[in-house]
Amino acid sequence: MTTINLSFAEMFEKIIACDSSYDGLFYTAVKTTKIYCRPSCKARKPKQVNVQFYYTVPEVEQAGYRACKRCQPTRDMTPQMALITSAMAFLVEHYKQKLVLQDIAASVGVSPFHLERLFKQLTSETPRAYLEKYRVDKAAHLIANSTLTNLEICYEVGFQSPSNFYKAFRRIKQCSPGEYRERFHETQ
Hints:
By secondary structure, the chain is an alpha+beta fold. It contains 9 helices and 4 strands, in the order αβββαβααααααα.
């Protein structure tokens, strides 16, 4: 079983945002309804105290939960999607490291060309774009919940240079890390 490097608060943020890029990496189980869903499920969001997270379907079903009829979390588990989910889990686990496509492909046992083509076909983005988005999401979480400087966060989340960090952050969040910090603290 692969566990991903996300805190409870980060996973809860992903289900509130209905972020489909985390589908297959974890499942949300609601204690009061005994139902489990994908992170991207559009059903009404549960209270945070009623939520538990599991990493695999067998694990959540063994705990006594049944699949959501709305998002059908077990519907798309083809061998190709399982391979992409494994690649995504590898990226999430090793996001702090300098990764190249060959490393990711070797982790799931396919050629780099095949992995990139299949990843793009099933997720509409490349492994590199997925990794960059994950790193920016992690950085946004750290900006909101830590006292680290933007430069410290840049290196903490795996970017190799501040210029790449600032460019990627602005492209994905439509603001700079400093602006994001100001906006977050204004709402508190």
